[in-house]
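job 3f2a | input accepted
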Amino acid sequence: MAEKIKTILITQQDPGGDKNPYSELAKKHKLKIDYRPFIHVEGVSSLDFRQQRIDILEHSAVIFTSRNAVDHYFRLAKEMRLTIPESMKYFCMSEAIAYYLQKYIQFRKRKIFFGNGRFQEVMDLIKKHKGEKFILPCSDILKPSIPEALDKDKIEYAKAVMYKTVCSDLSDLSDVKYDMLVFFSPSDIESLFKNFPKFKQNTTKIAVFGPTTANAVEDAKLRIDVMAPNPKAPSMSMAIEQYILDNK
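job 3f2a | predicted structure (248 res):
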């Protein structure tokens, strides 16, 4: 019989409030759940960006896959004293990212297009505007499926690395032990071993989200105890609850 789970560390930002699924889980099963991002984003300097030899203003359309991409696109434009023309077209992964643009530009729906959170939806929109010259602001870690989709349809675009995913300093956690660690990306695993090179799993349970994270955990010779999504649990909070109930 597995040991009962009492403490959990989520390697992401605290979602805040009492209505998020983890808060509900903590109340229901009397758990102590802490939050600590194992990775964070740092912007590329304008000097380093110039070395990529990409001219932002040479492009007539932008593809945004995240809010980070929006923030760093406009940050670099400001640092480089560039005025983004009103004729610029914006193609966003989701409606939430499209509305986030209001932080930087006057919202005009005729120049802003968005999908439903899947890149294929965005590709369908992009294909209708093949004459545009696209720029793709991204981090140094980009899902290969995105450039592959653009290349497949012969879209003219520039991959512009504007921010980087880096490991956070977790030295204050060195003496803190949790019954379960919850990981959401391969970078989380990299950060774990960068901060704690002698980490041994022992009885600690590991929960992972997505196949690429699972591959990173297995490559690190760690044991996966909770996998999400799965047929019974589409979310991480549901997968954790399933594990707790199965091991009562």
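job 3f2a | DSSP finds nine helices and eleven strands in the chain.
job 3f2a | closed
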